[in-house]
Amino acid sequence: MNIKRKRVKAYVDALGELLMVDEPSRELAVDLVKKALDRENVEPLRGASKPDDIYEKELISLYIIGCKGLGIKDEYKYMFEKVFHKEIKYDRIVQVLISNSTPHKAREIVLEILPTLSEVDVAKILRYALTLYYLDFEEPEVVVNVIRKLRDAFPEHEDTIRRFTKFFIAVKLADEISCGSIRNRVEKEIRKQLLSIKTGIEKSTPSDDYVVKVAKVMFNIPSKTLDNIFGGS
Predict the structure, then answer these.
(1) CA 42 – CA 19 distance, rounded (Å)
(2) CB neighbours (10 Å) of residue 211?
(3) What's the pTM?
(4) Alpha-carbon distance 136 to 223, whole Å?
(5) CA 73 to CA 180: how far, in whole Å?
(6) How many angstroms separate the CA atoms of 6 and 17, rounded?
(7) Residue 231's pLDDT band (boundaries 50, 70, 90)?
(8) What residue spans define the domains of the chain?
(9) 194 CB contacts (<8 Å, ≥6 apart)?
């Protein structure tokens, strides 16, 4: 079983356990997803660091699997509204951002959904879009669209968007390495620069060292493969 399937299994298991309790909560969901990932011996979705709130961020993954994968949101409406009230808003916001609305209109609607939009919220909205891509529910172009629209609608959050864009590019490169689309240093460098240009975010090119770390965590790519491409970065 590859690492992505192991993660999905952990999310499904955590959701199954959450549905069995009378009073579900965000705190319980965080605990269940941590234990489920530990049982599968896989890391949460993350970059090079492992922040203290990383398992709380994984509620995005649980929500997406429950809605897009299992299709149980309507059947278990009480649980979803109680536990995933934040993720429901992120879902709505991503749909707004990938629509044809202008940046000005998108800003208005997003602030109606989240009037106190913070740096943390911006990062989680971007994480929501990335998780849709990573779990194969959307194409990577959706993430690019969300990045660009968020930057245009909320230029005051450009630093947060830039940091996240580096993570997205690293994940996309790792995905292409995992699939065999990138096989050497030249192909890697070309794709890295093209992806950075495609996002439209300046200074968003991740370092090789960062890409290597993401490739190991997110796709469990063997060190030998990475050494052949990155020259032992």
Answers:
(1) 23
(2) 26
(3) 0.96
(4) 25
(5) 36
(6) 17
(7) confident
(8) 1-83, 88-233
(9) none
Q: Is residue 73 within 8 Å of residue 90, measured between CB atoms? A: no
Q: Which residue has the tokens 């292409």?
A: 176
Per-position DSSP letters for the chain, written without gaps between them? --HHHHHHHHHHHHHHHHHTSSS--HHHHHHHHHHHHHHHT-PPS-SSS--TTHHHHTHHHHHHIIIIIS--TTTTHHHHHHH-HHHHHHHHHHHHHTSS--HHHHHHHHHHH-TT--HHHHHHHHHHHHHHHHTTSS-HHHHHHHHHHHHHH-GGGHHHHHHHHHHHHHHHHHHHHHHTS--SHHHHHHHHHHHHHHHT-TT-PPPHHHHHHHHHHHH---HHHHHHHHS--
Quote the tokens at residue 63: 């929500």
- CA atoms within 13 Å, Cβ hemisphere of 111: 8
> How far apart are alpha carbons 181 and 101 in whole angstroms?
34
The rounded distance, in Å, linking the Cα atoms of 227 and 94 is 36
pLDDT tens, residue by residue, 144-193: 999 999 999 999 999 999 999 999 999 999 999 999 999 999 999 999 99
Q: Judge whether 14 and 33 are in contact, CB under 8 Å.
A: yes
Q: Which residues lie closer than 8 Å to 121 by C-beta, 6 or more apart?
A: 90, 114
Indicate whether 233 pLDDT > 60.
no
Tokens in use for 117? 């939009």
